[in-house]
Inverse folding.
């Protein structure tokens, strides 16, 4: 009982001082923002919409807690998480993901831990549940992140051949490579279009074409896109025509897409085997042989 009370008081104290530190941090940021507005001469309207309670209180508290919890991670691990989140399309901030990684095991293990503290009995079943909760909490964030990366890369692979075909047609029509990429990015949506828009924005801000395309490859980690960018860079270095190189790459990408479709078609019978054997065949046997079995039992009974 005393251990439970001490744990509750410790959690309350940590929440109080953590929240106080976050509020002090946010108030400092608000004061800096007010000073910036005063120095810039912007008019201040006290009746203007200041946002909801979530934007003014909850979001800053969560952001401050995420920043402080992410500081507990090793530097290399934090950099690895940041790189993986970039490849996944930045679904969450690195600080929020670090908070998720650190707090999820504790949150899942809280129930079994409370049972152990209240009963003072660590049985084998309770220990198994506690270990399972901790394992699930540790494994769930990387599994979720890998799933996001896989889905995003699949979307990139599916949209890349059509995008390269449009770039080839635009370049052969007389547009530059930047103009052709801009034509692809117009009026469309998807991960590839978003990355192309970012690369074009970097080029317009003064970044070199080679560096911007290399950044595109680093953010996607897609082998087919890496080979395409390497071919474009080699064509620039050797003086070859961009249109010819893009035409060859377009043919190669279409061949790869056809091979992937054939591979998926060959895997389909194997994937259908499990539901066919365990779900479809038993139902079929019941429907077809059920009346015959009842008739045979009735005949044997007479």
């Amino acid at each position: 009982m005393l251990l439970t009370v001490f744990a509750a008081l410790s959690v309350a104290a940590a929440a109080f001082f953590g929240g106080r530190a976050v509020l002090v941090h946010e108030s400092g940021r608000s004061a800096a923002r007010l000073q910036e507005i005063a120095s810039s001469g912007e008019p201040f309207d006290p009746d203007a919409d200041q946002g909801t309670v979530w934007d003014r209180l909850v979001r800053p508290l969560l952001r401050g807690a995420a920043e402080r919890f992410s500081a507990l991670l090793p530097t290399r691990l934090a950099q690895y998480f940041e790189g993986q989140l970039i490849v996944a399309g930045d679904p969450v901030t690195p600080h929020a993901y670090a908070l998720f990684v650190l707090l999820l095991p504790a949150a899942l293990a809280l129930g079994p831990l409370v049972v152990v503290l209240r009963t003072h009995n660590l049985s084998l079943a309770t220990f198994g549940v506690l270990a399972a909760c901790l394992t699930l909490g540790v494994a769930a964030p990387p599994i979720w992140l890998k799933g996001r990366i896989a889905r995003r890369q699949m979307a990139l692979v599916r949209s890349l051949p059509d995008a390269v075909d449009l770039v080839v047609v635009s370049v052969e029509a007389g547009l530059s490579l930047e103009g052709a990429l801009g034509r692809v990015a117009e009026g469309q949506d998807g991960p590839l279009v978003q990355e192309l828009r970012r690369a074009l924005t970097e080029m317009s801000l003064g970044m070199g074409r080679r560096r911007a395309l290399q950044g595109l490859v680093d953010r996607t980690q897609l082998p087919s896109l890496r080979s395409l960018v390497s071919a474009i860079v080699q064509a620039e270095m050797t003086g070859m025509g961009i249109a010819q190189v893009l035409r060859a790459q377009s043919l190669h990408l279409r061949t790869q897409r056809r091979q992937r479709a054939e591979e998926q078609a060959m895997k389909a019978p194997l994937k259908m085997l499990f539901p066919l054997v365990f779900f479809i065949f038993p139902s079929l046997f019941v429907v077809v042989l059920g009346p015959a079995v009842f008739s045979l039992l009735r005949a044997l009974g007479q």
